[in-house]
Amino acid sequence: ATPMSVMVGVGKAAEHGILIRQGEALQLAGQIDTVVLDKTGTITEGHPKVTRIDPTEGVGEAELLRLAASLEQHSEHPLAQAILAAADEKQLERAPTQDFEALNGMGVRAQLDGAILRLGNRRWLEAEGVDLQALARAAEVISNQAGTPLFLARDTQALGVIGVADRIKPDSRDAVNAMRAQGIRVVMLTGDVEASAQAIAREAGIDEVHANVLPEDKANIVSQLRREGRHVAMVGDGINDAPALAAADVGFAIGAGTDVAIESASITLMRSSLNGVTDAIAISQATVRNIR
Ligand code: ADP
Ligand code: MG
To answer: What is its main location (predicted)?
Structure first.
């Protein structure tokens, strides 16, 4: 495309809330045949809420939530925001912790009263030697309802599980259908567990799902698709999506997402709707056609 027609295309995209950083991305967008979507904050609203609190024997619900909020007070993850909002609603005081650490795709850890507290997914806590058997039933109920179970442990002692659930954006399903109508293969990637991932995928009308994906593996999956000859767009909102956004032919960051995601992507969707992806593809194709 000529520089002039690209400028026109970029301007047209901007009118649709699609901010294109380099003209090259506009031209690449027209060739996309595979769209890889992050789940949390991309297909879903990204404002999850606490839906269930299941402590183990001898632990109170308020105590479980208070400890979880104490751990999450320095985290920016959407799951942390859900825990903090629930604790604030019940006016629970957060305890000061030491040595806070957020482990991408696993959870958060900090010291409190000489013990190590951990809040995160089953795979990580079990690898740390925590027996979660007593919480298996509660966790199953949470995931079958499209929620994410977050387990809390003090050292190796399980204290309980908290269910956090997010809603799918009202137009995600239509956007996925529109992508299909453009002949595009749609794939969902998430660090979340299989059952929760499948429940959201069903609602969005996506049948190709990779769950339990660590952040570095999101980028590997994108690169693998490219090696297979696909022209890949990645759409994401989080720090954990940044490597995959950079690895794609075209990275789309959700405008309401984190700065790191926006910096790693070549296109930002100011309206946070997945319809921006199909709009960008259509505008790109029209731009390239016009100059031929
Ligand atoms: P997604 O790919 O869906 O955006 P992430 O890679 O950010 O998900 O997280 C994957 C999983 O890691 C979450 O489902 C959760 O179990 C755990 N996790 C990540 N960050 C946190 C946190 N701040 N608190 C608790 N659990 C977390
Ligand atoms: Mg996300």
So the answer is: membrane
Q: What is the DSSP letter of 72?
A: H
75 Cα nearest atom in ligand 1: 23
Query: How far from 268 is each of 212, 228, 283, CA to CA, in Å?
Result: 26, 26, 15
* Distance from Cα 220 to the centre of ligand 1, integer Å: 18
Residue 103 near residue 118 (C-beta atoms within 8 A)? no
Which residues are part of the catalytic machinery? 38
Ligand nearest to the CA of 42: 2
Instruction: Check: CB of residue 281 under 8 Å from CB of residue 30.
Output: yes
pLDDT tens-digit profile, the chain (292 residues): 688 888 999 999 999 999 999 889 999 999 999 999 999 999 999 899 999 999 999 999 999 999 999 999 999 888 999 999 999 999 999 999 999 999 988 999 999 999 999 999 999 999 999 999 999 999 999 998 889 999 999 999 999 999 999 999 999 999 999 999 999 999 999 999 999 999 999 999 999 999 999 988 999 999 999 999 999 999 999 889 999 999 999 999 999 888 999 999 999 999 999 999 999 999 999 998 876 5
Which amino acid type is present at position 12? K
**CA 209 – CA 60 distance, rounded (Å):** 36
What distance in Å separates the CA atoms of residue 188 and residue 34, rounded to the nearest whole number?
11
Q: Which ligand is nearest to the CA of 165?
A: 1
Q: What domains does the chain contain, in order, with CATH numbers?
A: 3-45+167-291 (3.40.50.1000), 49-165 (3.40.1110.10)
Give the Å distance between the CA of 45 and the centre of ligand 2: 10
